[in-house]
Amino acid sequence: MTAALLALAVALQGPDTAAAPRRCEIVLDHAGYAVQVPVTANLNNVHGGGGVVAHCRGTGSQLSADSVAWYPLVRRFDMVGNVRIRDTSFALDSRTAAYFTGDERLEAYTNVVAVNRQSGSVLRGPNLTYLRAAQGIRDTSDMRATGRPTIEYRAESDTTAEPYVIVADRVRMRGNDEVWAGGTVTIDRSDFAARGDSFALDQGTGRGHLVGRRPPTVMGKGARPYTLLGARIDLALEHRDIRRVEANGTGHASGQDWDLTADTIHLAIAQKKLQQAFAWGDSTRATAVSSQQTIVADSIALDVPEEVLTEVRAFGRAISTTRRDTTAAADVDWIAGDTVTARFDAETDSAGRKRTEIRQVLARGSARALTHHYDEQRRADPPAINYSRGDGISIALRRRRVDRVVVSGGSDGIHLEPRPVVPAPADTAKPAEVRP
To answer: What domains are defined for the chain?
Structure first.
């Protein structure tokens, strides 16, 4: 048995080198038993069992399994049963594994748990191929897995930080910063979720993207959730947190108080909450819709600090329409100009939920406005209609109705009062003649 262990150790040793990272030269430290099987005049297959412990010579790497087998012709080291591998940058547990020393490739199967000890990322799945960084072969480690593995992805070794949980049909992780996933990809964290057919992320550049035949989707999962869809979604990260989400092509974003469509939509995020949204396009004009208002323009910016809508700014042939609480198609107020700004107040309802109410709309540059004015004392009566033009127009609203219109700079217009109700004609009929 001692001769067999020595033969195995010598067979696995390669040329020594002081360069790092070193190639793994496996040396057996302990085995319950070992058997040699000759395959050539100078080479023997070696089988060990009863609990085997080994290490990579000159490194801190350790390997253990219930039993092992060494095949020198193919330079393959098989491990079966309770496989444990601990490298300086990698840790693995599995049912079986095969280590190919020629190209520093590890293949593990069944109940695989792999940990990147530098970043803290954890992969769990049915299989794994690990390409170890080694002198003269590759300078960066590479992990690949299929069978829908689950990854707790971290860019830095901070186990207290909440990871992104990535699930996909197949994944690849290169070094500490790069990850690719394909086939029904889901990404989840307490504040964020994403869905797509494929995903790529490079933490080194802070960029990632989602694509797919089905429109990829990003969702904010806070108290006031939002959703973003597009032909392609790009992500910008800083210190592991997503700071910007971009939908490029057929973008559609929605929140509790608003809905936004455009060719391109960017969402700005801070402190894990949506703060701003920007939309523009060539084939489709940007459109923002709130509960009371619709704005269309070449480009639109929304301020939503702490995910509450406070202001909408529209640029380029902008028009805002506001419908009164009625189904009458003609009963629509609108204001247009080179730019339009709508301002909202946040209110809290009886249930403690925040809601927004529009309080002011402003137009600048070739401004026009058509507004309806109702008599609060006689709400059933038709409204007065006002059409105004000027360099600038400001409309103040109260309880979702027009309260005041101010026109400035070369102003003109027309104001139409409702037609008075025609009084009923007096009864001039003679009394009927009474006959005896």
So the answer is: 294-299+307-424 (2.60.450)
